[in-house]
Amino acid sequence: QVRLVESGGGLVQAGGSLRLSCAASGRTFGRDAMGWFRQAPGKEREFVARISWSSTSYATSVKGRFTISRDNAKNTVFLQMNSLKPEDTAVYYCAADIGANGQYNYWGQGTQVTVSS
Fold first, then answer.
1. Side-chain half-sphere of 2: how many Cα atoms within 13 Å?
2. The pairing of beta strand 90-98 with beta strand 34-39
3. Please, are residues 115 and 13 in contact by the beta-carbon 8 Å criterion?
C-alpha cells in the first residue's frame, strides 16, 4: 500500500520559514514527478511546486520564496518555504506519480500551515 505522509507544518509569523517533508512508503518514486499543492479555506486546491527527475517548477505566487527538493535515498520530498506571507496559510498536500491522464495518482493527508500577520 502506497502512503505519503506530510510533516513540518505549523504556526509561523509572517517573514518566517518552515520546511515541509513528505515521506513515501510502499513504492519508490525516484524517477516520478512529485509535487506540493495547497488549499486555503473556501478556495480550491492549487499547485505550488513540482519536481521531476531533471527539473522543478513553481507557481508564480511562490517562485523565489519556496524550494522543492527530494532525497531519493529516503524516498522523501521537501518544500522549503521562506519569507512566508499570511496568504500562504493553507493545508499543504504532497502528491506523487503523474498518471496517463495527467493527474497525480497518490496524495498525502495534508499538513496545516498558518502564517500570522
1. 14
2. antiparallel
3. yes
Segment 14-46, tens digit of pLDDT: 999 999 999 999 998 888 899 999 999 999 999
In whole angstroms, give the CA distance from residue 48 to residue 72.
20
Interatomic CA distance for residues 82 and 96, integer angstroms: 23
- Size of the chain in residues: 117
Strand partners, 114: 11
Grid cell in block for residue 22: 513528505
Phi, psi (degrees; rounded to nearest 5) at 8: 105, -5
Nearest one of 68, 59, 74, 67 to 29, comparing CA atoms: 74
Chain segment 53-102, per-residue pLDDT in tens: 889 999 999 999 999 999 999 999 999 999 999 999 999 999 998 888 88
Q: Can you read off the three cell numbers belonging to residue 24? A: 513515501
| Cα 51 from chain centre | 10
